[in-house]
Design a protein that fits this description.
Order of helices and strands of chain A: HHHHHEHEHEHEEHEHEHEHEEHEEH
Largest interface: A-B, 55 and 55 residues
Number of helices of chain A: 14
Distance between the termini of chain A: 90 Å
Oligomer: homodimer
Strand content of chain A: 15-25%
Helix content of chain A: 40-55%
Largest sheet of chain A: 6 strands, parallel
Radius of gyration of chain A: 27 Å
Shape of chain A: elongated
Chain lengths: ~350, ~350
DNA sequence: TTGAAAGCGTTACCAC
DNA sequence: GTGGTAACGCTTTCAA
């Protein structure tokens, strides 16, 4: 008895055992008091809760999850936190998870790190679900997750044929929308600034854009940005506009690149949109700010987050057994960074 | 035997027991193979690792942490993800935690939610440390954490007398620096746009700013922003500049408010800095972008993150027993959003 | 409704 | 160096 007392002292944590001893009931009773569905008398529950509060007892969710096999932790993998697109995504997801009693375990792979490398680490944490943004996983890892019954949802990446759920903006359609819009504004010499070469998002936007332009017999300049950063957009814009045959519109693979491009051009005396129209993709909040007032394809962030949670099993309906891809349409936001190249229209629109 | 086989089947998870059975060794051996410091023969370790990989076994860190009392999870509490200040902080912290084998459990309190309410939830997860940004905790909660030996560090909040570690930029000094700088540029009618009334960061910046101005006999206009948002800055700037006696410089409590203010003024025909100088506080990456080119007090983000980790016990040195506050000095970034009001100087500086 | 006891998947201690 | 066994703090049968 002396020994057990000392043991309790050593561990500062108050356990259910301790509460039980104080109340003179069994430890199971303490557990029941904290389980909403357990059968326990109201009186007992209040008594337990009272002394629990007094002793500062809180159930250890780690120990609990060993039995329940649920940690209430969802892992979110983001390539970086510098691009506002990802912070918006993180915000939307976290805001939905918390009211459902779930916590967000954040993971930002270091530049060279593949998602496949970090997935085992996440699985070790016995997370209840994994959301992977702008990256894909090998089919081997996908199978490993499936075997453990850990739901995985890819966000902003669509991999046909992969046995995994995915939610993505329809990038091809978005590229087409933008092409159509710029054609409607009588642009005849558009350019596209690509992001990372491997990124399917960038490639799909490009193919949709270029494809639609070609249907109208309009050729597209392609400039490699390198990556989805402010600086990449900054440099690419200058390269394009300092050509002997500069474009009359530049469509950037993402908003953050467009911001860099706009800043670069303005710093060099160009007027937007008079000298060149600028468009982006994503529709981050900043794109609506007066400084940029950027025409862009807006991701339906909240719909996407809803879809992700549904595929993770948070929805009312059953999660589809077979891998499903939810392709969501973006909305073109017609703003001040683009303008019609037709003199008549210009007069009408801009007075 | 039949029964146990079925049990294993049911739980898709591969356990150490399973690996042990396959290899014909004890389960302890499996555990040792995964413990770097354990005494085990090289040959055995390779054998264990091989079959573990084959069976897809990964130690369950939840079960492990029940014994080790370490989860390798650090909780980070941020008021929001819309202000780039917090995403930079989150980025810096996560980037340092991951190489140390620690994961980030993110928590963003909903608007009405107090940190004191959510702290118990975090503690239930048995996190190894808690980083709380721009908020404080009651001394009761601080004691609760201390009792559990869970280190807590406040970031961007300095609470004298509270028994808790804190890392913060010296906001009073920052306010003074900015006052001195603007006085040096011969501003005679400065204004300060405050953030949330309760926020000590905003209040300290204000008192430093106003105090230093007063030493030179310069009065300061005070405008309440309401909160640290783009929109709040937008509205406050307009209110100030539409006064009959507008200021010649506006110092915003944070960069994000300054961005809103600059956009508002430019949209209304004001030229920055010719009509009014604009300054911010935080030094987020965007402040350096050409569109804003904002004069601001730059938080030493990496030093702050280093200091936080040190106080959490990640440093080489022992963590101070008594609550320590690390007050770090910001650096004034002299950029294009401010200019001298002295004609002579103007000619010199701007050609 | 309550208590006793058997897990959950590890680590840690003790023999050998 | 290795195996057996007792924790870790909880949930969940099964009896009473």
């Amino acid at each position: 008895m002396n020994e057990s007392t000392r043991a309790k002292r050593q561990s500062q944590r108050v356990t259910a055992d301790e509460v039980a001893r104080v109340l003179g009931v069994s430890q199971s009773t303490i557990s029941r008091a904290f389980t909403a569905t357990a059968s326990i008398s109201d009186e007992m529950r209040t008594r337990v809760m009272a002394t629990a509060a007094e002793l500062g007892y809180q159930p250890n969710v780690i120990a609990r999850s060993l039995m329940t096999r649920r940690t209430n932790i969802i892992a979110i993998v983001l390539p970086n936190l510098a691009d506002p697109f990802y912070t918006v995504v993180l915000d939307e997801l976290t805001q939905r998870l918390q009211p459902r009693g779930c916590q967000t375990l954040l993971f930002v792979p270091t530049p060279g790190q593949e998602v496949d490398e970090i997935l085992p680490t996440l699985l070790q944490y016995q997370v209840d679900g994994i959301i992977i943004t702008s990256a894909t996983v090998s089919s081997a890892m996908a199978r490993a997750c499936a075997k453990r019954e850990t739901p995985v949802v890819l966000l902003n990446r669509y991999v046909p044929g992969l046995e995994i759920h995915a939610v993505s903006c329809d990038n091809v359609a978005g590229g087409r929308q933008m092409a159509e819009f710029l054609l409607g504004q009588h642009h005849r010499r558009p350019a596209f600034v690509a992001g990372q070469l491997e990124a399917s998002t960038s490639m799909d936007r490009q193919s949709g854009f270029v494809g639609r332009l070609r249907e109208d017999g309009v050729e597209c300049l392609i400039e490699q940005g390198g990556d989805h950063t402010y600086q990449a957009g900054f440099d690419a814009a200058l390269r394009l506009m300092l050509r002997p045959d500069p474009p009359d519109a530049i469509f950037f693979a993402s908003d953050i690149m467009a911001f860099g491009g706009m800043d670069a051009l303005r710093s060099n005396g160009f007027i937007i949109p008079d000298d060149v129209s600028i468009a982006g993709f994503n529709g981050v909040p900043m794109a609506a700010w007066a400084s940029y007032d950027l025409t862009t394809i807006r991701h339906p962030f909240s719909h996407m987050a809803d879809a992700v949670l549904e595929l993770l099993g948070f929805g009312e309906t059953e999660v589809p057994q077979s891998p499903t891809t939810r392709l969501i349409h973006g909305e073109l936001m017609d703003r001040g960074s683009t303008m019609s190249r037709s003199p008549e229209l210009k007069r009408l629109v801009r007075g």
